[in-house]
């Protein structure tokens, strides 16, 4: 059972399967090592979500333990992290930050042809 909240759809194009996942990991909840392999396998996958995993490498103000874990996992498995160009967290009196990111793995260069 996954510890983070997820909703996924599987799409079938004329050449490939594609999985799109929306994910949420609540603040102060550790990403479990067992969650990530369940989300990414050989199927081309795009995961979009608020993972509360901060890492300076993708533009956050600081790195937290979830951000360290996610960076190691994505680096080890060649999963691309795609942060937005501007902060996604806005609250009065609090520093702007990036909480929402996209993770992309095994994506074919020619999805339709």
UniProtKB/TrEMBL annotation:
Pfam families listed in its UniProt record: Exo_endo_phos_2 (PF14529)
SUPFAM superfamilies: DNase I-like
Stretches assigned to the Endonuclease/exonuclease/phosphatase domain: 18-106
GO molecular function: catalytic activity
Protein name from the UniProt record: Endonuclease/exonuclease/phosphatase domain-containing protein
């Amino acid at each position: 059972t996954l510890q983070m909240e997820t909703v996924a759809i599987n799409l079938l194009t004329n050449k490939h399967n594609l999985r799109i996942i929306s994910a949420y990991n609540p603040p102060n909840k550790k990403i479990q090592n067992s969650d990530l392999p369940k989300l990414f396998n050989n199927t081309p996958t795009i995961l979009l979500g608020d993972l509360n995993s901060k890492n300076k490498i993708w533009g956050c103000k600081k790195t937290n333990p979830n951000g360290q874990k996610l960076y190691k996992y994505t680096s080890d498995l060649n999963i691309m992290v795609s942060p937005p160009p501007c902060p996604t967290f806005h609250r009065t009196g609090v520093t702007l930050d990036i909480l929402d990111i996209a993770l992309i793995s095994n994506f074919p260069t020619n999805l339709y042809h």
